[in-house]
Amino acid sequence: MLVMESTALLLIGVIACFSINVSFDLPSANENIDNVVSLNIENANIGQIILPTMHGAILETNINRDDDGGIYAELIYNRAFQGSISLDGWSLFWQGSIAASTIVPLSSALPVQLRYALITNSTLTSDFRNSGFYGMNIQARNYTARFFYRPLSGAYVASGKLNIGFSNSSGQIIYGMSAIDVFKTLIDIGFYFSFTIPVYSSAPITQNFFFIEFPPGSKGDFEFNLISCFSPTYKNRPNGARIDIAQAFADLKPGYVRLPGGRRGTWTGYDTKGFGLIELLTFVVDIGATPVLAVYVEYSLDRKAVPPDQLQPYIDEVIKELDFLTASASNNRMGALRVRLDRSQPFDIKYVGIGNEDWIDPASSSYNHRWSAFYNALSQK
Questions:
Q1: In degrees rounded to 5, what are phi and psi of residue 116?
Q2: In the prediction, which pLDDT does 98 show?
Q3: What is the domain extent for residue 108?
Q4: Strands 97-101 vs 113-118: parallel, antiparallel or unpaired
């Protein structure tokens, strides 16, 4: 008889220690090889529990287009023309012309707008449209659209209504559309529209467009800005995450999520930063993970570090960030700012990651003094 004893069994999340006896009879030359094997488990005890924070994930929000076109549920690419004075992602369909305009900005935060011009009364239904991020996956559901609209002097919309919706690339198949009444909009005054676009039939492919359509007989110059359209979001959060990507992330069951990336700026392209700190942390809380807030500690990919005597302004910036996320609105101006941005409840930040990839030479030679300076200051919070 062969006996195996005291074998340890490792389970995900829990180490369980068993005393296991496995016995079986070795067959003789005259016996059938199909012998019975017996397994006895004795004194099963739970061992060391592995904490959820021992495994997790990273949300890198500073690479290429950031969260735009990914976990962020915004469908419109280049919605506010913020990266440069460019209409990248936008195109004309039928009559009229489109151009980027900086004349009389809507606001200091939105200095560039799209101007759609019809020099003469249009004879066809005409529109301008957006191709989205690598196409648009239009499904049977309700979408929420918004934009700023400003008709200029002499502008006229026949019937007083614009049609906004989704179509295929040829414009011949409309998947969903809403008519927006702009008749009472004042000339040269910006007006904010928010509305729902119902879609009753899903598109079979992703080569689709979001369009803003003018009826025949329209004429003049019209300006648009912050043209936005959202699919339903994870847990119905405003300005939130795409349901499919968010659910796939949640299904990983990360114990922690490190955010919001490791460096300032982006490698290529422009990102709106629309999925900001509040949205990121709300998402992490929604999936039941613990946030690890990574902060910049003054070493960049130009291989230069800030000298020790110049670190204080950067430390102060991190303290403001923590106050914004965790402080009460009643006695802290950064906490009050968070409340004004519709997040009344402070976040529970237990962990702060000081720096990113500081093992890269020559970062390691300066990390000791940078880490100590930030640690000593943040430990007082």
A1: -105, 125
A2: 96
A3: 90-232
A4: antiparallel
